[in-house]
Amino acid sequence: MSRTTDLVAVFTTVSTRQQADLLARATVEQRLAACVQIEAIHSTYRWQGEIVNEPEVRLMLKTTQANYAALEVLLRQRHPYEVPAIFALPIAEASAPYAGWVTAVLAQNAGHS
Amino acid sequence: MSRTTDLVAVFTTVSTRQQADLLARATVEQRLAACVQIEAIHSTYRWQGEIVNEPEVRLMLKTTQANYAALEVLLRQRHPYEVPAIFALPIAEASAPYAGWVTAVLAQNAGHS
Amino acid sequence: MSRTTDLVAVFTTVSTRQQADLLARATVEQRLAACVQIEAIHSTYRWQGEIVNEPEVRLMLKTTQANYAALEVLLRQRHPYEVPAIFALPIAEASAPYAGWVTAVLAQNAGHS
């Protein structure tokens, strides 16, 4: 499938709803994400030899490929974790009015001024 | 990674559980989605100059690349929002029996009759 | 967009939180997933001619492309469903320390010994 948009869906995970809201607001304020969705999850992973299971909050941030690097920098600066999970899934197709809205929102950020 | 399937995961977001259930049922009834998952989220985005945060419901619809355009048309017709977020993530790999089930379910829709 | 990582995000769905926790623990124990996130959802799909809607639990497992086939085998062996949804979304970009952590965790699994 050839991609018809340059949008990406970026995921990261924090410990609390408050941390998630702070990251969501910061990335939208700086126009590095057009919108951010957060949801409660439970995570299982290996930590110092033990398998742990704990509640977390996941963010899904919508941005463009061109803004991913700057968004990752901001997330790492503000993130409560030392090695946060931050990764982007490519978006293959998007409704044209929605893709236009995302692009227009992000076009006004500092990288474009 | 070369893709071994033509499945896609389509996302859209509405305000209420009832709206989500209506869209889920309509897309499955018309065989434009083989299955739909919904979940409660909170969204942060810019609206008329303000940053807003509100509860929403996200849908993840499983379909094929060939059915994406018709699914997007149906979602836009039935969607409560003026500019809904509708976009598709490519699926790179899928369990063969599952991919076969999705394809078989969708093969009976109107586009194939 | 050219991919800068070989990570993938794998999704599957089960009926209960307990089933989800068992799959999460098994895949992390065998180092076929570096971390697993689970969340409550509602699913709509066609079953024996009827459209059904039921609560389920979704898993999102982070692994590498090289480990996908072995992970799918393990998921199918342990899965409570006859034809489970199991599929992988490609990850286009990832924070370098995170990608390094995933790769390091998985490098110690049986396939590498």
Automatic annotation (TrEMBL), chains A, B, C:
<comment type="similarity">
    <text>Belongs to the CutA family.</text>
</comment>
<protein>
    <submittedName>
        <fullName>Divalent-cation tolerance protein CutA</fullName>
    </submittedName>
</protein>
<dbReference type="Pfam" id="PF03091">
    <property type="entry name" value="CutA1"/>
</dbReference>
<dbReference type="InterPro" id="IPR004323">
    <property type="entry name" value="Ion_tolerance_CutA"/>
</dbReference>
<dbReference type="InterPro" id="IPR015867">
    <property type="entry name" value="N-reg_PII/ATP_PRibTrfase_C"/>
</dbReference>
<dbReference type="InterPro" id="IPR011322">
    <property type="entry name" value="N-reg_PII-like_a/b"/>
</dbReference>
